[in-house]
Amino acid sequence: MMYQSATNAPDAARLEDYLRAVQRHKWVVIAVTLFGVAAAFLFTSSRAPTYTATATVEVAPTPVKSIDNRLVPPNLEKEREILASDGTAQLVIVEMDLGSSAQDLLSNLDVKFRPDSDVMSVSYTSLDRERAAVAANSFATNYVNLRETEAAGFYNSTISTAEARILALQEEVKPISEQISTLESQRAAVVRDPASPSRTGQIDAIDGNLSTLRSELAAINASIRTLNTSISNSRTTLATRSPAANTLRTATPPGGPDGLGSNLLLVGGLFMGGLFGVVIAFLLERLDTTARDSEDVALALGATVMGAIPTLGIGHRAGPGSLIMLSTGGAARIAAAREAFRRLRSSVQFLNSSTGVSSVIVTSSSPAEGKSLTAANLSIALAQNGSRCVLVSADLRRPTLERLFAMEGPRPGLSEYLAATAELNAEKVPGIENLWLIRAGTTPSNPGELLNSDRFEQMIKELEREDVEYVVIDTPPVLSTADAVSAARYVDGVIVVVDTERTETADLLQVRADLERSGSKLLGAVMNRQRFERGGLFRRDKYAYYRTESGGA
Residue 284: enclosing H or E segment and its boundaries? Predict the structure, then answer.
């Protein structure tokens, strides 16, 4: 995570920031991608494939429930409820000879329609493709039959009602006809009897009754004719009408299961896993405050980066194996590490020639960041170049240099000298010309006070007078104790080792503040455990020269 000054707004993320995040957290990206593929595989393996077949039904207007026999447009919402009703499902169960309940059958049915059309789609989902098609067609067919039966029933009901009315009217015609016949007989008898005194009045009365009865009979006959016309029209309409509903498309067995195919799901899992992996990697990069880049370190410490040590194997991280400058050959990583220490040596030599720097403290912000390993290899590099160098094991709490050089043992050292109980003793390091080691000695109870004493300053001056070109001092971490800050006042400068996998930017800011407060000079930083990048398809292999060197060139 790049350190941002408090006065500057953070930079917007660039493409290289995303690429760097993916590179640094590639295992996270790979793990999340594999998880996405595994999840897709488990899903495709565990799911039972289902098949959906669809039939389409057209619904036409009918006069059902109209008051004037006119065609009424269908209400598709209501028709959908009828199609997906228990009654229709029972007809399907009987037709298909199923043992399931209507609710089970309807749970797999889906009926849809567009509000601006008269077409409904009937979809049925089943584990068997053949059954899906048969069920969809059965629902469609039974619904069409129901609607057809309802429409035909409307016309048949109209005809039956009219026929019944005709029969009733015909029953009314009989007594009227009989009365008319009786009155006609009476009138004929009166007409034949001219001697009757009331003959004219009787004829008039009979004629009036006849006229009334004949009017009633005519009205009844007119109604019968109207009803017969209605029956004829209804029969004609019934015979020539359009279907109340019909199946536009019959469902066929689907060619494949519902949803995405297994291969497509695996590809989707791969893509989504990779996408989420990149997002997580970028978030981790943004949330990571570790000082990974030389720009971060330089900005936090206010000093240049003097060298970058690649990550070493387990066998070269502790003990004599960590003295890389004493090794020969080896892998490209080891050769690169040796070259990094040589570059650090050149930087120190340049400071010596330009500003007279001869005594330096090598420290870090926290323990286990590689300060002792750096101090030891820097001293060896200086000695191999012909410079007389004294390496001081000033980490009185946890001395490490003695173990690195296999010079452990109970002997008086720096702590005894600073406590004025022994003389200063610089021991020649076996097998290394021009290099001496001052042991830490017995662990004292007051290491901070000893390193802050005049005798420590006197030791530095005494070593410089004895024709020693460089004094390299290994101290405790700055943030762990005050020892390093106390000792830093008496030397020419401080080199801070930064573990690119552990050191936080905030810790470097604190180290800088502590050293500046003590008046110490910060010479620069060394990046330890820097990522070792090999050549790739689109990246030049900058370590190819080291592999040539390690091969004996």
Answer: helix 262-287
Ordered mean pLDDT values, 10 residues apiece, the chain (553 residues) = 42 67 79 86 78 92 78 87 91 87 90 88 91 92 90 85 88 87 84 72 84 89 89 82 87 82 78 83 69 80 88 71 80 85 93 92 91 93 94 92 86 90 90 93 89 90 86 93 90 92 87 91 89 46 48 32
Q: Whose CA is closest to 359, among 518, 527, 511, 523?
A: 523
Domains and CATH numbers, the chain: 15-48+258-285 (no CATH), 51-249 (3.30.70.1130), 290-550 (3.40.50.300)
Query: Whole-angstrom Cα distance, residue 95 to residue 82?
Result: 18
Residue 475's alpha-carbon distances to 170, 321, 436, in angstroms, are: 130, 21, 17
Q: Is 356 helix (H, G, I), strand (E, B) or coil?
A: coil
CB 470 within 8 A of CB 352: yes
Residue type, 541: D
- Alpha-carbon Rg for the chain in angstroms: 54
The alpha helices in 123-198, defined as continuous H runs, are 129-192
Tell me the pairing of strands 470-474 and 359-364: parallel
Backbone phi, then psi, for 437, in 5-degree steps? -125, 130
Q: Are 57 and 49 contacting, i.e. CB atoms less than 8 angstroms apart? A: no
Pairing of β 470-474 and β 389-393: parallel
Task: Give the length of the chain.
Answer: 553
Q: What pairs with residue 110 in β-bridges?
A: 123
Q: What span, in angstroms and rounded, lies between the C-alpha atoms of 33 and 36?
A: 5
